[in-house]
Amino acid sequence: MPLRLVTLLCLSLLLGACASLRNAEPPEVTLSNVELLGITMLEQEWALTLRARNPNDFPLTLRSLDYQVFLEGQPFGRGLTNAEVTVPAMGDALVQTRVVTGLFETLRQLQQLDYKSGEPLHYRIEGSARVGGSPLPLKFDHEGEIGLPAP
């Protein structure tokens, strides 16, 4: 009988933890910085700094982010992080990640941009965050602008 009671207690604690995270608001993920790391004959490697903002009154431990970035409505790159980052309650944290893009696709996309020097580019970042203690990912989707340096 004690084993059944322990099992029931563990199950209720687990369900309670899942229920509280089920009501968690997803993090707001924005693009903080983009830096070109290198170019090869077929690819470019970009360092992206993402800012994850936690709107909840409890900390979120981000185990991973799976995301896609769009520039001016066109897909730019897809990324996946695996570094665990704890975002404090009602706070934010920076997440460093890398994206690899194809040279010809990026050149085609840059040619199509109607970019004017000094004006910001519109971006969108969407994806999901795997959060410690939750079996289900939290979806996020954010639009913003990022300034590019004048030539």
From TrEMBL:
Extent of the signal sequence: 1-24
Keyword Signal: yes
Every Water stress and hypersensitive response domain range: 29-145
Matching InterPro entries: LEA_2 (IPR004864), WHy-dom (IPR013990)
Keyword terms of this UniProt record: Signal
Domain of life: Bacteria
GO BP term (any one): response to desiccation
Protein name in the entry: Water stress and hypersensitive response domain-containing protein
